[in-house]
């Protein structure tokens, strides 16, 4: 994303913010012309008001959106624009089944503690928080129907995203048991088609707010 912003505004100062030193070290190696800062985005304040703030699939990991989103807009210069995209999946089948599997075996206590807990707000909430602070606010949702290939493809997708923190906490036997249970539930809910493709609907929320 920072590379795309640099291409769009080659004369601008582009700053990437992340809380992971490992991720930042990799980013600095790959993109030496861009500045990267280790910080918690909820508290990071740029040394000058920003013209554009962009977040792609990150803010759903943070809490207290009623303060977080207005706070990000407050860091914009007059006329600046805040843009965010994040999964909007609390009530999606894949995540409901994840919670059921977390509760279904001897791994229960560890799995419950590691379940992703995204802020449960509707699009109108974000509009209500930002509209008093902005001259224009657009909020919309899109459902992407991903075409996934392979055996139990939705399970493989989820193992690479929301499930990582949970799997890291479980002992090998617990991890195997949880994945077997979760995989069986997902296979029943998301059927593999005759052509080998599994359709996986995934909802995302988009916000563009102009100060």
Task: Walk me through the structure.
With 211 residues, the protein is α/β, with parallel strands linked by helices. It contains nine helices and six strands; from the N terminus they run H-E-H-E-E-H-E-H-H-H-E-H-H-H-E. The protein has helices at residues 2-8, 21-30, 65-74, 93-102, 108-114, 123-130, 153-159, 164-169, 172-189, and strands at residues 15-18, 35-38, 50-56, 76-87, 136-149, 197-210. Strands 3-4-6-5 form a four-stranded mixed β-sheet. A two-stranded parallel ribbon has the order 1-2. Strand 3, helix 3 (65-74) and strand 4 form a beta-alpha-beta unit. Helix 3 (65-74) crosses helix 6 and helix 4 (93-102) packs antiparallel against helix 9 (172-189). It is globular. The chain starts with a helix and ends with a strand. The mean pLDDT is 92.
């Amino acid at each position: 994303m920072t590379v795309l912003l640099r291409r769009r505004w080659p004369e601008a100062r582009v700053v990437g913010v992340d809380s992971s030193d490992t991720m930042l070290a990799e980013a600095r190696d790959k993109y030496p012309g861009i500045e990267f800062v280790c910080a918690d985005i909820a508290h990071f304040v740029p040394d000058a008001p920003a013209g554009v703030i962009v977040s792609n699939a990150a803010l759903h990991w943070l809490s207290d959106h009623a303060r977080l989103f207005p706070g990000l807009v407050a860091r914009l210069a007059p006329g600046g624009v805040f843009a965010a995209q994040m999964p909007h999946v609390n009530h999606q089948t894949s995540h409901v089944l994840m919670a059921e599997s977390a509760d279904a075996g001897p791994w229960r206590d560890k799995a419950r503690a590691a379940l992703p807990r995204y802020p449960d707000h509707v699009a109108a909430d974000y509009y209500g928080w930002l509209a008093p602070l902005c001259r224009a606010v657009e909020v919309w949702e899109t459902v992407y129907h991903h075409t996934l290939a392979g055996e139990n493809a939705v399970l493989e997708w989820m193992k690479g995203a929301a499930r990582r923190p949970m799997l890291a906490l479980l002992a090998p036997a617990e991890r195997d048991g949880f994945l077997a249970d979760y995989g069986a539930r997902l296979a029943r809910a998301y059927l593999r088609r005759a052509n080998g493709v599994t359709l996986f609907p995934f909802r995302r929320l988009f916000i563009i707010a102009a100060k």
